[in-house]
Design brief:
This protein is α+β, with helices and mostly antiparallel strands. The protein contains five helices and seven strands. The strands form three sheets. Strands 4-6-5 form a three-stranded mixed sheet, with helices on one face. The protein has a two-stranded antiparallel sheet with strand order 1-2. β5 and β6 form a beta hairpin. The mean pLDDT is 82.
Length: 201
């Protein structure tokens, strides 16, 4: 197997990109898939959560930190497999062969990283990409650079706690049933959010 050739894309000067904005369309959901608490993949929306405003007066983002369950493969972009499985599953169910056609396929976090690059000039990164059937797939694990080794997430106990705060906040803002089914502020679904174990699987 031949070694891959690295390519670079110069961001500056930003003036090179002045011009009309690209047109965007309303997103359309084509498939749902879920990971359960053991990180098993399911082609359905069983892990779908619903937004419900948190009780801000009793919102302790550090609560439960000692029981925090974090997925073993880190906090970077997930591997390509589950998204490709979902796309293949969708193609198998649909008669519309154009339903899953795209120029670019990736995780939302990869697009965020790319779009923030002009403003995060001190955070170099590398990503793997594959072109197949005229679609560019950018979903592989982010390549580790010397910078990311030295500044890895969770490098300090304080940093690990701050990462947990984000997950805990999401936990406090979501429930397992639609808000219309919540009967009162004493609903067990609302009360369990404060004590439930945060599991990023």
């Amino acid at each position: 197997m031949a070694a891959h050739k690295p390519y670079s894309f110069l961001v500056h000067p930003i003036g090179r990109f002045f011009g009309p904005c690209a047109s965007y369309k309303q997103p359309v959901e084509i498939m749902s898939f879920s990971y359960d608490d053991k990180r098993n993949l399911h082609m359905d929306d069983r892990e779908l959560k619903y937004y419900y405003p948190p009780d801000l007066e009793n919102c302790d983002l550090s609560r439960g930190y000692e029981k925090f369950i974090q997925r073993e493969d880190g906090s970077g972009p997930a591997p390509i497999h589950s998204l490709l499985d979902a796309l293949a599953h969708t193609k198998g169910l649909s008669q519309d062969k154009n339903l899953t056609r795209a120029d670019l396929v990736s995780w939302r976090g990869i697009f965020t990283k790319i779009l923030c690059t002009p403003y995060n000039r001190n955070e170099p990164w590398e990503l793997g990409a594959t072109l197949w059937n005229n679609t560019m797939y950018m979903m592989f694990q982010e390549h580790e650079t010397e910078y990311t080794k030295e500044n890895a997430d969770g490098a300090t106990p304080r940093h690990k706690l701050m990462i947990y705060w984000g997950y805990k906040f999401e936990n406090l803002c979501t429930i397992n049933k639609p808000a219309s089914q919540v009967n009162s502020v004493e609903d067990p679904e609302l009360l369990s959010r404060k004590t439930s174990v945060v599991n990023t699987n």
